[in-house]
Amino acid sequence: MTTVAAYAAPAAKAPLERTTIERREVREHDVLIDIKFAGICHSDIHQAREGWGEAIFPMVPGHEIAGIVSEVGPGVTRFKVGDRVGVGCMVDSCRECENCKAGREQYCTSGNTGTYNAVGRDGEVTYGGYSEKVVVDENFVLGIPEGIALDEAAPLLCAGITTYSPLKRWNAGPGKKVAVVGLGGLGHMAVKLAHALGAEVTVLSQSLRKKDDGLKLGADHYYATSDPATFEELSGTFDLIVSTVSAPLDLGAYLGLLKTEGTLANVGAPEEPVSLNLFALLGGGKSLSGSMIGGIAETQEMLDFCAEHGIGAEIELIAASEINEAYERVLSSDVRYRFVIDTATI
């Protein structure tokens, strides 16, 4: 075991504090990563505050990890010391079910092993990226291409793949009209990716406060959802709507913005249930769907796509001592557009 410094939530809703954790020794197929940067995802806050249900404490959040390989196990074939790598939202799965074999490890039928707030198949609790080092099986490590700065790459391991996957699944591209609901950590990546894929992109945000940013990121249009006229003007417009917000929406109103047989894909995860009059789906043969991160192969595809198109996250680099302040700012939508921890400050 190796002792490393980390920031952990000692209990639900408690401020995160500096501590130490134990990392396992490198096994046959393990990669030891010196973490350089770790993104702060809204889901870190949900879990640290038990917004999604009972959690495991102490908790070291962080599933947007970018770093450098410092050691590999004797059986490792995919990585070598010095490689630039990333780790996303999961660090293991059963690898035997239909979904795992199809490259959809995120939907492992026996449950994937989360990068933190989970119990691994070895019975040990997992701890995330707000730490100096992490040990991960090579099959759940991603290569970060040279074309992306490590700090801007970290958020791609969650925010990037979470938005890339539904855009690819529903064929966002030339000739398609795509709307992105919310311009935050997820939303700003959805805009960049949809634009790079060739779609006509519209941002739907509560206000026009971030309009200039949205247009610079690649949006063609920007509307305020607080204005009822928006829903009248855009009725029947979109092939695909990707909702990135973690607050309940009036789903019927947004379904009304879809073309016939259009899809509303949810990647945000509100803590509260939402309701829906099913006639909003029946009229027009529309689909309401969900999407959760992506498989390992698709995540690597996303990273390669981002490198090819010069895409990284828009970040605000912070010291570890600023994590608790950053959490409050995320909840206040006061970040442009992803906090990333410089782990050298832990």
From TrEMBL:
Chain ranges of the Enoyl reductase (ER) domain: 14-341
Catalytic activity line of the entry: a primary alcohol + NADP(+) = an aldehyde + NADPH + H(+)
Keywords per UniProt: Metal-binding, Oxidoreductase, Zinc
Cofactor section: Zn(2+)
CDD domains listed in its UniProt record: CAD1
SMART domains xref list: PKS_ER
MF (Gene Ontology): alcohol dehydrogenase (NADP+) activity; oxidoreductase activity, acting on the CH-OH group of donors, NAD or NADP as acceptor; zinc ion binding
Family: Belongs to the zinc-containing alcohol dehydrogenase family.
Protein name: alcohol dehydrogenase (NADP(+))
Originating species: Streptomyces coelicolor (strain ATCC BAA-471 / A3(2) / M145)
Taxonomic placement: Bacteria, Bacillati, Actinomycetota, Actinomycetes, Kitasatosporales
